[in-house]
């Protein structure tokens, strides 16, 4: 559709409203970052002073030196990486099977993986807690990683199946007719082509696991506490120290924001593939 | 166990000689399951068995601190739920929560998508940045908004007082009449980008010939929106609405972070109430029953969504 509106009209009818939406979308984030670099004295001013007069990194220094936050960051990193590794490790072969084989239970199983992705977390979290307690996996990395695989695996399977489906079957079939074994066809033909999808799914699992709160809270104690759980505890502990809290929030939010922006385009097309038929 | 590909015809005696590699690779009936086994095993252990266990738990009076004293009470928990005033309060809040949050996320997302589908020179940056709230952890969202809603030095009160909309600061999260709406605003903020990018993806599949033809026929912008744009993306919208309804209905972590369900029961929704009964009072049996009621209530929506999402499965 050609846009015959003048530049001025377009500015008022499109660009200005878009700008307003962006301000709405980014302002709370910006406010968090701004708060984290203001000295304590400026935080208790009324009326509020919007921009910091003496910007400082004191809150970050204090957060790292005085609290367990650095350790929590490491825990989150281990858990999110583990969740991505486990999720991809079992989902890649599963997605391959759903894409390349036609078998009787296929439809039922794929629908099943979709349905369990819709289960309320509260439905799973109670028995999972009992299960992990009985297995001695409470407050271990493996326990939280397994908890996160409840959403990571179904999601990764669906996302990867659509990526596998996008690679023509003829390619690997031709390789097998030419004498390659199935393993060789997967390793040499299919996997290299599906790699962008694997990376996207892995990053998505990493982000969701990093962001996750309820499973981490139920299944972790002091030993493997993640950043989200730690920050929530800090909210109770340092009630009015908003500088410290927003510094923690910024440190948690920044890496996922960057990751998300990096893979956004592919991620969006993968996520909306279910909703948009092309 | 070996399968018998090819049905009843007996193989020729010198089969091995003529066997093409393709036939050699013909998968046995069990091949797909070797690929699926790890995923199925883990999913069975962490999803299917626990879900079944929830059903079993819901039929018992099970307190976490004395699991051996658990007694079978049949449907007793469910009968208790029907008489539980807090359940009905939470259910009412859940209805307001779902309709309000999903509805406004959708409207805001639709407007954003229609705008981002226009052409202007910084469109790419705008499309990337609008998604940021969606990437953030719920704990951070709770934190950001609690800080903005702060009674003493919150920026929201500050701005509203400056503009003159309110005379004195408001304790947004401490007032029973405002707390739920205040948390809903945070969730609407977080979730509208999902609608924006999903609908935007739908808009991009509309062939421009449709608009050109309409323009020749003298249609104005509003007519094009009603007769071309909206009907073309109706399908996308329906799927997105179903998906978000399920997600929003289940989400409780932002509420948990911002108010923990209070003041009083003012921000109790159904999943939050189930969680509170499990986590604070350790009544796992009763909480399991509540979780199950939530699941049953959502089943229709899940069914509608799954039917849509899996319609292309047999390609």
Structural summary, described in words:
The complex is a heterodimer of chains A (278) and B (315). Chain A has 278 residues and is mostly helical. Helix content of chain A is 77%, strand content 0%. Chain A is built from 12 helices and no strands. In chain A, helix 8 runs antiparallel to helix 9 (182-211). The mean pLDDT of chain A is 87. Chain B is mainly α and 315 residues long. Chain B has one domain (76-309): MetI-like (MetI-like fold, Orthogonal Bundle). Helices cover 68% and strands 1% of the residues of chain B. In chain B, strands 1-2 form a two-stranded antiparallel sheet. In chain B, helix 5 runs antiparallel to helix 12, helix 10 packs across helix 12 (221-250) and helix 12 (221-250) packs antiparallel against helix 15 (284-309). Residues 1-23 of chain B have low confidence and may be disordered. Classes of the chains: A mainly alpha (278), B mainly alpha (315).
Element layout with pairings:
The complex is a heterodimer of chains A (278) and B (315).
Chain A: H1 7-36, H2 40-43, H3 58-66, H4 69-100, H5 106-116, H6 121-135, H7 141-165, H8 169-177, H9 182-211, H10 214-219, H11 227-237, H12 242-272
Helix pairs in contact in A: 1-12, 3-12, 4-7, 4-9, 4-11, 5-7, 7-9, 8-9, 9-12, 11-12
Chain B: H1 15-18, H2 21-24, H3 31-58, E1 60-61, E2 71-72, H4 76-83, H5 85-116, H6 123-129, H7 132-135, H8 138-148, H9 155-163, H10 179-203, H11 208-216, H12 221-250, H13 253-258, H14 270-279, H15 284-309
Antiparallel strand pairs in B: 1-2
Helix pairs in contact in B: 3-15, 5-10, 5-12, 10-12, 12-15, 14-15
Any key phrases for this structure?
heterodimer, A: 278 residues, mainly alpha, MetI-like fold, 12 helices, B: 315 residues, 15 helices, globular, disordered N terminus
């Amino acid at each position: 559709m050609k846009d015959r509106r003048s530049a001025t009209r377009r500015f008022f009818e499109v660009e200005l409203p878009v700008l307003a939406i962006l301000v709405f979308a980014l302002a709370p984030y910006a406010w968090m970052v701004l708060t984290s670099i203001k000295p304590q004295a400026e935080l208790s001013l009324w009326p509020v002073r919007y921009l910091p007069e003496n910007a400082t990194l004191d809150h970050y220094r204090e957060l790292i030196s005085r609290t367990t936050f650095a350790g929590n960051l490491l825990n989150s990193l281990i858990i999110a990486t583990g969740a991505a590794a486990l999720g991809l490790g079992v989902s890649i072969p599963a997605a391959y099977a759903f894409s390349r084989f036609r078998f009787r239970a296929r439809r039922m199983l794929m629908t099943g993986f979709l349905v369990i992705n819709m289960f309320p977390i509260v439905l799973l979290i109670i028995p999972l807690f009992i299960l992990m307690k009985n297995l001695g996996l409470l407050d271990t990395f493996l326990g939280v990683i397994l908890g996160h695989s409840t959403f990571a695996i179904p999601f990764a399977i669906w996302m990867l199946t659509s990526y596998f489906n996008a690679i023509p079957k003829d390619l690997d079939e031709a390789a097998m007719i030419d004498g390659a074994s199935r393993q060789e066809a997967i390793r040499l033909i299919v996997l290299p082509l599906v790699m962008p999808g694997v990376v996207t799914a892995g990053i998505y699992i990493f982000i969701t696991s990093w962001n996750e709160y309820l499973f981490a809270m139920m299944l972790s104690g002091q030993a493997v506490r993640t950043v989200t759980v730690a920050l929530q505890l800090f909210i109770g502990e340092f009630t009015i120290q908003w500088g410290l809290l927003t510094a923690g929030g910024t440190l948690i939010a920044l890496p996922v924001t960057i990751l998300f922006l990096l893979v956004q385009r592919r991620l969006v097309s993968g996520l909306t593939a279910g909703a948009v038929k092309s | 166990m070996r399968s018998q590909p090819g049905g009843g015809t007996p193989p020729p005696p010198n089969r091995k000689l003529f066997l093409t590699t393709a036939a050699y690779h013909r998968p046995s009936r069990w091949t797909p399951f070797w690929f699926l086994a790890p995923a199925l095993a883990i999913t069975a252990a962490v999803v299917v068995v626990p879900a079944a266990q929830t059903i079993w738990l819901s039929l018992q009076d099970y307190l976490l601190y004395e699991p051996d004293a658990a007694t079978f009470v049949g449907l007793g928990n469910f009968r208790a739920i029907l008489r539980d005033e807090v359940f009905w309060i939470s259910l009412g809040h859940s209805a307001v929560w779902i309709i309000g949050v999903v509805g406004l996320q959708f409207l805001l997302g639709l407007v954003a998508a229609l705008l981002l589908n226009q052409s202007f020179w910084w469109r790419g940056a705008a499309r990337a940045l609008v998604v940021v709230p969606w990437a953030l952890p719920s704990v951070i969202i709770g934190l950001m908004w609690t800080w903005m809603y702060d009674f003493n030095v919150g920026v929201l009160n500050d701005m509203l007082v400056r503009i003159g909309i309110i005379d004195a600061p408001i304790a947004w999260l401490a007032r029973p009449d405002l707390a739920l709406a205040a948390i809903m605003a945070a969730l609407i903020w977080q979730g509208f980008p999902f609608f924006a990018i999903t609908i935007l993806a739908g808009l991009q599949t509309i062939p421009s010939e449709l608009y050109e033809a309409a323009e020749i026929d003298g249609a104005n912008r509003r007519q094009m929106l009603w007769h071309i744009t909206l009907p073309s993306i109706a399908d996308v919208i329906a799927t997105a609405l179903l998906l978000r309804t399920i997600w929003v209905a289940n989400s409780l972590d932002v509420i948990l972070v911002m108010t923990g369900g209070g003041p009083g029961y003012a921000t109790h929704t159904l999943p939050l109430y189930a969680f509170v009964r499990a986590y604070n009072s350790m009544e796992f049996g009763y909480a399991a029953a509540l979780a199950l009621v939530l699941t049953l209530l959502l089943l229709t929506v899940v069914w509608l969504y799954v039917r849509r999402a899996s319609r292309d499965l047999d390609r």
